Amino acid sequence: MVKTSKLTDAIFDVGGVLYTLDYDRMFKNFSDLCGKPIEKIKDILYKENILIDFEKGRISSIEYYKAVTPDFECSLSFDEFKRIFNSFLIKRDQMFDLLKKLKNHINIHILSNTNEINAETLMHDLESIPSSIVYSFQTGYKKPQHEIFRIALKKANSDPKKIIFFDDTEENVDAARALGINSYLFQNKESLLTTLDLFGISIH
Fold it and tell me: Does domain 9-20+91-198 have CATH number 3.40.50.1000?
């Protein structure tokens, strides 16, 4: 007997789901280039909650660059800064392959707490996979705020009961679930496939 899915859409987080986040790699790259200790690099990049402002779109890429790079005290062009700033994103090819297959069954959407610089890499890698993308820097909100989930639901244009959401943070999963979205904590590809199978979607 063939199972029929009631799902029409799937929303995916990015970091920890589609990408491994290797922050130590990024810190080391900045440290090696500028000759500053890694702890100092962290302080510079995260000073006074500036990254939160960046991820909520309160400041632009160039404003963030101009705010933090003087403290590095080394020659660092905007393009070089962006390259290193994106170096913590390690693409999980198996997950991207899965999304391409899943797209043949339901609509794919992306919901991510991210900034304008990291989004450049995401857009390049995601290409035409998702039907919609919601980035925190474009909305002024971050998960687990309900407002950003409502924006994602509006873009998906579907009943929350027909949507499944995967995120690697329990707090975000709980927030989406409170809005009636079928929400699951991402652990690995295998558990995701098992969950999809329960909803009648089998990916081979």
Answer: yes
CATH code assigned to 23-85: 1.10.150
Count of helix runs (H) and strand runs (E) in the chain: 11, 7
Taking CA 167 as the corner, what is the angle to CA 161 and CA 168, rounded to the nearest 5 degrees?
Answer: 150
Indicate the domain borders of the chain. 9-20+91-198, 23-85
| Orientation angle between helical segments 78-85 and 61-68, nearest 10 degrees | 90
DSSP notation for 11-31? EE--BTTTEEE-HHHHHHHHH
Q: pLDDT tens-digit profile of 47-60?
A: 989 999 999 999 99
- The amino acid that residue 77 corresponds to is S
Q: How far apart are CA 4 and CA 143, in angstroms?
A: 31
The pTM of the full predicted model, rounded to 2 decimals, is 0.94
Banded model confidence at residue 4, pLDDT cuts 50, 70, 90:
low
